[in-house]
Design goal:
There is one protein chain. By secondary structure, the chain is α+β, with helices and mostly antiparallel strands. The longest helix is centred in the middle third of the chain and has 23 residues.
């Protein structure tokens, strides 16, 4: 008997056995394989698709006609595009882009950038403490407990949210970029972060096995954090405690006499806002009831800080507040599912960029609610919302964000967003309270609905 025949018989026998358990039977396999007919069209598509990036083949040529529309009726001016390099720190760059735009407008500076490296250092230390304290708090639970499993799966990341910006600058202040420059490991975070994660998991087992008192556990945790701190210093440099600085003009000439600051006094003098008290966090999540307040457990950077707490609203309500802020020349922290339908070359987020349905001969029919419920879509990247194009009748046409992927990416470092895409893939917006109507502020008086850490809306922008 030929080897091929023996193999076919063995495969058939295996398939029959699997069919009894919900597997693929031989009859089922015949029906499945009939989906590919091997026609000349199928063969041509296979040859093309198997040898190319599907985005190249699915690129909608009709959508390219007329060029990129870069006109906006309302725009907040910004100067200088930042670059998060190979790191997941978009949340931090976005928060600082909002702050620097305000500082430049308020103080008349022609240039300004704050040190992401300084704040990221403290972020990694605080998140390490958040994890270790979480392990202490759950040490009586079994390893199979869902919260314990979640903690061990997520001991540390370089991603984050607006609450991280707010809590970290409130506690540690802020410094100019030149005071604590980026290092290789702040720009390329994966290796050091993975090593710290490994160490934190090792510490987690030690803390769970320790039968000491709470006081002794805190002492042990402090020692562990000392090791993490040393790892961070060696890879990022030691955070500055005091520095001398003066703002500069476009040529780099100091404007006035340099003064000595601590990071906290610098923030108080030049920024001075309470990023927790003065702002409202908004969400568009159609999988849950609108006009409710939600809080996601453990969705924070600092153990004694703030979870992500937001008002869930219809998308049109959020747009009105975004428009009001842009009209008043105020940028906003904005996050979305950036990789969906992104034409990175043009810098355009548009539902019509690609036609995958025609290419594969099928449909992709989930709506926003269904994509959230199935973990197909969620907030993945933070950027700075800074422009909108509005018709005289109030119709929103498109939006624009300042990104942190460098000036050569997209449209001069920006991404243009069609209003239809905004509806489908925008998730979070942080707005100053003065642009928030009273009916939304009243919702904040509700007792928040507490969601678990593994909720689909727990998403760290990267």
């Amino acid at each position: 008997m030929k080897k091929q025949t023996i193999f076919t018989l063995m495969l058939a026998a295996t398939l029959v056995g699997h069919a009894q358990q919900g597997g693929i039977s031989s009859d089922m396999l015949k029906q499945i394989t009939n989906a590919y007919q091997g026609s000349t069209t199928d063969r041509a598509l296979m040859n093309a698709i198997s040898a190319n990036d599907v985005r190249t083949l699915a690129l909608n040529q009709e959508n390219l006609r007329g060029g990129l529309d870069t006109h906006f009726t309302h725009r907040v001016e910004s100067k200088g595009i930042t670059n998060q390099e190979q790191s997941g720190r978009c949340w931090l760059f976005t928060g600082f882009n909002v702050l620097r735009a305000k500082a430049m407008a308020r103080h008349g500076w022609s240039q300004c950038e704050f040190s992401q490296g300084y704040t990221f250092f403290w972020d990694q230390l605080e998140k390490s403490n958040l994890f270790l304290q979480g392990i202490i708090d759950t040490r009586e639970r079994p390893l199979t407990d869902q919260m314990v499993e979640w903690l061990l799966k997520h001991p540390l990341s370089d991603g984050g949210t607006y609450t991280g910006v707010a809590d970290l600058v409130a506690k540690y202040g802020i410094v100019p970029a030149e005071v604590m420059p980026e290092t290789y490991n702040t720009n390329n975070t994966s290796r050091v972060t993975s090593l710290i994660k490994q160490k934190l998991r090792e510490y987690a087992l030690q803390l769970r096995d320790t039968k000491e008192s709470d006081k002794e556990l805190q002492k042990l945790k402090t020692e562990m954090l000392g090791t993490i701190y040393r790892m961070l210093v060696l890879s990022m440099g030691e955070p500055v405690k005091e520095f001398t600085w003066a703002p500069k003009d476009a040529s780099g000439k100091p404007l006035g006499k340099a003064q000595t600051y601590t990071p906290q006094s610098f923030y108080k003098k030049w920024i001075g806002e309470d990023l927790n008290a003065d702002y409202v966090m908004l969400m568009n999540d159609p999988s849950r009831d609108y006009w409710k307040v939600y809080e996601i457990d453990f969705d924070r950077h600092v153990y004694d800080g703030h979870n992500w707490l937001y008002v869930n609203l219809p998308i049109e309500e959020i747009k009105h507040m975004a428009f009001a802020s842009i009209q008043d020349s105020t940028m906003m922290y904005f996050s979305c599912d950036v990789n969906k339908e992104l034409n990175a070359t043009r810098g355009l987020l548009d539902m019509n960029n690609y036609d995958y349905a025609s290419l594969f001969g099928t449909t992709f029919g989930m709506d926003k609610k269904q994509r959230i419920q199935t973990f197909d879509s969620g907030s993945s990247h933070a950027m700075t919302l800074m422009a909108v194009d509005v018709d005289p009748d109030g119709t929103y046409n498109k939006w624009m964000v300042e990104n942190s992927w460098g000036a050569s990416h997209g449209y001069r470092g920006h991404l243009i967003i069609t209003d239809e895409w905004f509806d489908e893939y925008m998730f979070r917006l942080v707005v100053n309270k003065k642009y928030v109507p009273s009916k939304v502020m009243d919702v904040l008086k509700q007792k928040p609905i507490r969601l678990p850490a593994w909720d689909p809306m727990f998403a760290e922008e990267e």
